[in-house]
Known about the structure:
Radius of gyration of chain B: 25 Å
CATH superfamily of the largest domain in chain A: MetI-like
Distance between the termini of chain B: 26 Å
CATH topology of the largest domain in chain A: MetI-like fold
Strand order of the largest sheet of chain B: 1-2
Strand content of chain A: under 5%
Number of domains of chain A: 2
CATH architecture of the domain at 77-138 and 189-312 in chain B: Orthogonal Bundle
Shape of chain B: globular
Number of strands of chain A: 0
Number of helices of chain A: 15
Oligomer: heterotrimer
CATH topology of the domain at 77-138 and 189-312 in chain B: MetI-like fold
Amino acid sequence: MRQPVPNMSPEAWAEYRAGLRKRRWRQFLQMVASHTGLITMSVVFIFPLYLVFVVSVMSFDQASNRDLWPNPFIWHNYVEVFTAVPFLKWTLNTLFVSVMTMIGTVVSSVPPAYVLSHLQWKGRQVTFVIILSTMMLPGQVTMIPVYVIFSKLHWIPSFLPLIVPSFFAGAFSIFLLRQFFVSIPEEITDAGRIDGCNELQLMLRIIIPLVKPAIAAVGLFSFLGAWNDFFGPLLYLVENQDLWTLGIGLNAFRGLHHVDTSMMMTASALFMLPVIIIFFFSQKVFIEGVTLTGVKG
Amino acid sequence: MTSIASALVPPRKRGASAPATKPAKLKTPWLFIFFCMSPWLFGFLGFTVYPMGASLYESFTKFNLIDSPQWIGLDNYHRMFFEDPDFWKALWNTVWISAISIPLRIGFAIFTAWLLTTAKRGRSIYRTIFFIPSMVPTVAATMVFTVIFNPAFGTINMLLQKIGVKNPPYWFMDPSWSKWGLIILGLWGIGDTMLIFLAGLLDVPRSLYEAASLEGANGWQQFRYITVPLMTPVIFFSAVTGVIGSFQYFTQAYVASSQVNDFSHSMYFYATHIYYAAFQSYEMGYAAALAWVLLVITLICTLVMLRTQKRWVHYPNGSLFK
Amino acid sequence: MRKNRLTASLLATALLASGFIGATSEAQAAERKVVVWSPFNGANLDMWNASLKRIEAVNPGLTIESVGQVDMEKSLAAINAGTGPDISVANGVGNVGWFCGTGAWQPLNKFIADKKVGINLVKTFTPAANSGTVSRGVRCALPFSSEVFGFYYNKDLLKAAGFKGAPKTTTQLLTMAKKLTTFDAEGNIVRAGYVPWAGYSDNDMGSMFLGVMFGTKWFNSKGQSTFATDPAWKKAFAWQKKFIADVYGHGDFAAGSRALTKFIAAAGDFWGGNNDFIKGRVAMMAHADWMSMMWCDPEGWNLNPCKTPAVNFGTAPLPVEPSIYKTNYGSGIVGANTMGISKGSKNVKDAWIVLKGLATDQELALNWSNANGDPASLLKSRDNNPGLKYPAFYKTFYNISRHARSGYHPLLNTGEHLEETGLQSLMSAWQANSVPDISAGLKDLANRVNQMIARNG
């Protein structure tokens, strides 16, 4: 080992080495503590998910016995859930609504985000503040007249009340996109204008390719928001069983015949699985999106 | 990055000095702006402005969806405050769960975020694990929790008994414990809030910590005097969104009460009351009145928080908006 | 040229006229259409549709469109939206006060009294059935079939414990339940004798069963709630508390309540082969007549033949409090399917014809009773005929449906049967040991119900 200061006295050298040892020992303890804490917390977070997947392949009797490991593995539960309840139909319905919502949100939110970030116009700040404040509005205040509108249009029950509003640009998506757009420097658009591009070309050809991660984030969030949504389908789809999404179906499980605890877990597992899989493939997008909305603005 | 970007002056922070060549004074392309904003604008007018006005009007009427609304003045409001014990129960439950779960969530989010910062390697794996539960569909999460917290065959009580708890609570099946079950469910899904706090924690300049340890401050003192004050903007943001969100708390409570037949209304919240008034009894006018009272309460809470933020929130850049 | 123009205009006029005539006759033909929505499906729907066909046959020019699997909640939403059917059917009687009061179902009094197309209600339907279709003098529904609630007991378990038959009084019920209940080493309930618990049988009837056992009154002649003024209610809840304490808590109510909560939490799916009664986890249970279908055949719900039921069950009327035994034993809750003409129906006259036809169809009533075990609501029905297919247990329910004191409680516009849901909530809180003073709770509930009635006008 090299001495930090040349020609140290033997006492100073010993003291230094003791101090180093103490520090290393403390760092080691800290690392152990940190990993213990992290692993404990991980177990806590994973445990319910572990139980879902494990109980989903248990028989009802075993599930009642609170066993922690299936024996035997009743893989058949995953087949039976499709025959006991119209699970496939629920899944397809949920998929349809989620995809359409995603498309609607992305298509309608990108232009306002662009216009609110890369163009100067009178009233821009006011509009942005209005958009922000609508994010804080409790949904219940607008819920009833909106329901009445859809009711008078005879759109209940159907997917339309869930899909059509997404084509009208939600505040959250505009906000998220705009935060990202703002990080693209003005110089690019200015240069483009000098070059003679009109705004539409600027938006489509230049800016959009640059903000693909943000668009992916918005698309992902709106897809997942629709996939997980319960209240919307509860209001607009519940009267027609053929239109049910997974959320309503799962909630109604107890009232349906021939289902029990382990099958409830099977259904829950299948409902959760797409989300978990999508998340694994797009982690960065997620995390950037969440942090963007939280801190920077 | 496109070729245009690389061919230009390197990207600078916004607000930096003006570029060498200023573009010619352009006319504001109003048509384009209108075209882009129109989806939002029409949505705003049709799904926000009009309904707000309509629901305010409806709150003074008796309206059951078949017949047209009948004006009854302040009757709905009178009934709400003087003739509806469910209203007070719902309000109490909502206030209770907000007061308990918002600080708990903030504390737990800070704790888990801080725990993540102590990880030198593998942080992203842990982060993923902590985050996934918050992405899971709430209906599924709630159903799973009612099963594993089942007093008879739930794993949680079995584990509690194994570590010596003689009479574990009945959680969702016990009116005095059901809200705690909901709170635990909410804490399990702390991931998204945690990420925000993680970003906030990582934003604190390392130099401050180094300077403090040079002066002899230990870890706890550093946390108390550096980390927490600099995190107050995030805490504030989280508290405000928490209040707004918890007053609209619905899905978990509704799903959990359907699983266990919550007749004693221990999981009956403000949003639940509005839902039942509107879509079970078809008393739309009353529901509209309830919704407006909710809006007023939320506004008051938000304003109070905004007013008092000066006392405890430190903004590094001096203001909320950059 | 002129001739052409003339021809053209003549042709045009002819076309127009024929179109007009065609449209009118089309409109006339379209007028004689009645849309019926019902919650029935499968074999029940087939019987229902057959009856509708018979009505069409007797009324030439009338077409009936029938849609099944639509419960009243959906029908109501459609009625509210203006797209409802002419006739809608509810599975029970509980909301009739609400439907009558809000006008969701139109008043039928003038049709009933009509000399040509009317019905003599007293001569056509049982008293129990008639009590379930009227609210404050407004009759907005006709009954169809019935739903009779009685008492089921496990013959094998009772015999093994030395009992000859079903309990007849609440005192006997407690004694028998105590003997039939078993515990495990940790004090958990393994088998329950009888579970007087709101929400246990996956229905809202717990408080209503208590009411029948004690002969309680729900409303007085002025249409006010009697929860607080009728002492039988307080007696009933006190009995429930004593029952839980004695049978499940060794004298301690809180312990008994906890033990029962855990026992119920461990129950399997109510519908199907894992049902507590089928598995012998509970020895006696109050429920509806059609549950016989599930005891006989948990998977397929076939009532006939019931040679090898999943559980050896016996039927009886609900036990009653000893002091009212002479007058009340043998009676029970009798509901019915109720059907009315929706608000906004465009063809009320023909809807009435269809409604009357359905309610008075003897063949439909007989087939329905055979298939479902529900006694008919028709007074002179053919289902007391020994030529019927079903086993002896049907007799129990048939007799209950004819008992003088059977029926439902008076129906008022309490929104979505607030008197029932409110009572159920109170009972749930009471049994969970969350209500210190039941009198206060009953008084509070009575006030709320009265307020709601007053508000609904």
